[in-house]
Design goal:
The protein is an alpha/beta fold. It is about 45% helix and about 15% strand. The strands form three sheets. Strands 4-5-13-10-11-12 form a six-stranded mixed beta sheet, with helices on both faces. A five-stranded parallel beta sheet has the order 9-6-7-8-14, with helices on both faces. Helix 11 links the parallel strand 10 and strand 11. The protein binds pyridoxal-5'-phosphate. GO terms for molecular function: pyridoxal phosphate binding; threonine synthase activity.
């Protein structure tokens, strides 16, 4: 299938090119020329996650991957479950944090890594990315051990939790990590400078594993199908399903809208944000007016200019989906009281999922609400323990890396130094 640039419509590329390139001209996002409606959704729902995902993804990758290649990629990428957990009569959570780095970003990062390895075809490339936590871990684990791919991850020294740091700095092999004396913004600026340096980019085959990459979004479509499949297995009469998506850059919501456009029976979506409420204000007033980003306890959603919003807007304006998105902002106090409320229902939640659960509050009686559990509560151990007033156990993935040695090198926020390092 062809993908076109939402800003410069005449730029059209293959799936492989869109994955390798990331962004189009003028920073435009790639979008599929067609989102095929599937006519066999009931049949698909009866399949396993891996088997079904091959069917869901096949039309998008046609021309670049054979069915067998796609099946191999999906099998390697989705080697952990997405799991529906009932919370109450009308509410369930879709747990997306059973992958190697305990966050939903594992789905997209692993699928992207497998695709990229296929498309670069033995040619050496360097993935350069800056992280303030979750993305770095997902990218590091997804690419770890893949031949001919060197991964360099920059992060602000001393500004992320030790456990977070250990999740991506202890792997070694093709994963190199650099602790920058500076802020997350300094790290991002260094990445941008590297991409702007065409000679450097060419020399080391520079690529980003950015969250706007179309492969990451397409992978995420698959777990909406899995959620509905599990819900229908529990109750075949179930209708009027509402998904509440804790949203930062709105990639997760975009994937949900793709699933609906393909014919998955979803009634509507609630895009739940924290105090960074550009989208709920936009839907209420029609005015796009980002404010300065504020820090919250659901920090993976501390985004005031969400980079996937143009895709959502396009789908709504072009009628690819009907008017099915509302958006609600949840403040810090509500987030913490919701964590306590969920704990009373027997469920330990971290702040992002709590924001999404709270945002389901206005569902109608006949609607069944599913909120997305985007991270394991242990990834936000400090705030979960202090809010709930009880200790929580570390899952194996975190306990294992806690004792490992950090392999990072230290560097000043200085481009010349980074450039020399990358060329060595
Ligand atoms: C990245 C992230 C989000 C936000 O997802 P988007 O696709 O950027 O909207 C929500 N929760 C957690 C835990 C995350 O890591």
């Amino acid at each position: 299938m062809k993908f076109y640039n939402l800003k410069e419509n005449e730029e059209q590329v293959s799936f492989a090119q869109a994955v390798k390139q990331g962004l189009g001209k003028n920073q435009g996002l790639f979008f599929p020329e067609d989102i095929p409606a599937l006519d066999n959704v009931d049949e698909l729902l009866a399949m396993s996650l891996v088997e079904r995902s091959v069917h869901v993804l096949a039309p998008f990758v046609a021309g670049d991957l054979t069915k067998d290649e796609l099946a191999e990629i999906v099998t390697n990428a989705f080697n952990f479950p997405a799991q529906i957990q009932p919370i109450s009569e009308q509410r369930s959570v879709l747990e997306l944090f059973h992958g190697p780095t305990l966050a939903f970003k594992d789905f997209g990062a692993r699928f992207m890594a497998q695709c990229l390895q296929k498309f670069t075809n033995g040619q050496k490339i360097t993935i350069l990315t800056a992280t303030s936590g979750d993305t770095g871990a997902a990218v590091a684990h997804a690419f770890h051990g893949l031949e001919n791919i060197r991964v360099v991850i920059l992060y602000p020294k001393g500004k992320i939790s030790l456990l977070q740091e250990k999740m991506f700095t202890t792997l070694g092999g093709n994963i190199e990590t650099i602790a920058i004396e500076g802020s997350f913004d300094d790290c991002q600026a260094l990445v941008k400078q590297s991409f702007d340096d065409k000679e450097l980019a060419q020399a080391i085959g520079l690529n980003s594993a950015n969250s706007i990459n179309i492969s990451r979004l397409l992978a995420q479509v698959c777990y909406y199908f899995e959620a509905v499949a599990q819900l229908k297995r529990q109750n075949s009469q179930l209708d009027d399903i509402v998904f509440s998506v804790p949203s930062g850059n709105f990639g997760n919501l975009t994937a949900g809208l793709f699933a609906k456009a393909m014919g998955l029976p979803i009634k509507r979506f609630v895009a739940a944000t924290n105090a960074n409420d550009t989208v709920p204000r936009y839907l209420a007033t029609g005015e796009w007016a980002p404010k300065a980003t504020v820090a919250t306890i659901s920090n993976a959603m501390d985004v005031s200019n969400p980079n996937n919003w143009p895709r959502v807007e396009h789908m709504l304006k072009a009628g690819i989906v009907d008017e099915c998105v509302s958006s609600i902002s949840v403040d810090e106090e509500q987030t913490q009281s919701t964590m306590l409320q969920l704990n009373k229902l027997g469920y330990i939640s971290e702040p992002h999922a709590a924001v999404a659960y709270k945002a389901l509050g206005h569902c109608e009686d006949n609607e069944f609400g599913v909120f997305l559990g985007t991270a394991h509560p242990a990834k936000f151990k400090d705030v979960v323990e202090s809010t709930l007033g009880q200790p929580i156990a570390l899952p194996k993935e975190l306990a294992d890396c806690a004792g490992e040695k950090i392999l990072s090198v230290d560097m000043n926020a200085d481009f010349a130094g980074l450039r020399a390092y990358l060329l060595k």
